[in-house]
């Protein structure tokens, strides 16, 4: 079977269309290999275009709620935290270690959009509270964030469905590299109870006189890191400029041309990648790297603020869905996903 021609975004990220993903997934192998393979120019990310028309509304509704949640009083936000899960359910701010220090640049709301309560043993719940806990949601009548739970689930399940379809399309390419030839990416993801979504609010940079300049570090808003998933689904970020009290913020294109997501190619080159607002992107995580013995590497990425006169008034809202196996899944003969993820949590939540 012939493969469809490989197409790219202006920055060089591979694109595939959703209609092709559904109707002729086996014809996308060349695109998938170019996106996720070991070629030095590969970015480790793929952009899905032509999504069902409901997507933009789902994205906009939830990302605006991320902004509104961040505006709740601190004591209200703190009602929706979970220290016992190492802040892996509900609200988290200043708990994650990034670049060697607590990260106050962004706040996150975590939940499993696929199921509210996992059906696993109490032993597993005790051993892995970061994954096998119950979702925490704002009260239905919490002023300012009404509809939060449903908006989160609607977008999360939309991304999850497309992620499962992409995983199935990746199987013919991935099977060549997986350590266990019986491993099915789509089955690992679709049957997992560890799926986790992260709704992110990047607070406007400080207005204390230390605003970013053109020579600011590339990872000034979020440090370079690897996701520890098999695949991560990403929405295009929304930038919101704050207005007077009680007035809805304005959506703006971005802070500056240098703002946004940056990725290192397999060859080490740095590339800024823009995800169109009506598209989704998916990138590879460390669990896939381990499961393929390092042949399909995780995608190093970070976020830059970008210099702008409006910097101290503009926030960044986005959403990521981490698709990964259950904790007892062997990634290699030496380590399960649960053992691996514990190591990652120990690095980033060591308190």
TrEMBL record:
Domain of life: Eukaryota
Name under which the protein is recorded: Clavaminate synthase-like protein
């Amino acid at each position: 079977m012939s493969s469809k021609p490989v197409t790219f975004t202006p920055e060089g990220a591979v694109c595939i269309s959703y209609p092709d993903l559904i109707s002729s997934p086996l014809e996308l192998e060349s695109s998938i290999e170019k996106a996720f393979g070991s070629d030095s120019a590969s970015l480790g990310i793929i952009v899905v275009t032509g999504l069902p028309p409901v997507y933009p509304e789902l994205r906009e509704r939830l990302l605006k709620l991320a902004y509104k949640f961040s505006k709740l009083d601190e004591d209200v936000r703190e009602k929706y935290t979970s220290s016992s899960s190492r802040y892996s359910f509900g609200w988290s701010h200043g708990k994650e270690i990034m670049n060697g220090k607590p990260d106050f640049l962004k706040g996150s709301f975590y939940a499993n959009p696929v199921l509210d309560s996992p059906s696993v043993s109490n032993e597993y719940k005790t051993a892995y509270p970061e994954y096998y806990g119950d979702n925490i949601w704002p009260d239905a009548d919490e002023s300012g964030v009404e509809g939060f739970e449903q908006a989160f689930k609607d977008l999360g399940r939309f991304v999850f469905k497309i992620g499962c379809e992409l995983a199935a399309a990746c199987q013919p390419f991935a099977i060549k590299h997986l350590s266990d030839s019986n491993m099915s990416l789509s089955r690992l993801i679709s049957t997992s109870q560890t799926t986790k979504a992260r709704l992110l609010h990047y607070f406007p940079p400080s207005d204390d006189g230390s605003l970013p300049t053109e020579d600011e570090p590339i990872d000034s808003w979020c440090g370079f890191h690897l996701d520890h998933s098999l695949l991560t689904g990403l929405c295009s970020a929304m930038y919101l400029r704050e207005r007077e009290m009680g007035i809805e913020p304005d959506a703006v294109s971005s802070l500056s041309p240098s703002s946004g997501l940056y990725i290192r190619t397999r060859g080490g080159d740095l590339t800024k990648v823009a995800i169109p607002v009506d598209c989704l992107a998916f990138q590879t995580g460390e669990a896939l790297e381990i499961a393929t013995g390092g042949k399909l590497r995780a995608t190093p990425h970070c976020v830059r603020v970008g210099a702008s006169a409006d910097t101290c008034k503009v926030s960044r809202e986005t959403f990521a869905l981490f698709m990964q196996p259950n904790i007892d899944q062997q990634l290699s003969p030496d380590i399960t996903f649960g053992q691996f993820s514990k190591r990652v949590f120990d690095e980033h939540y060591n308190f």
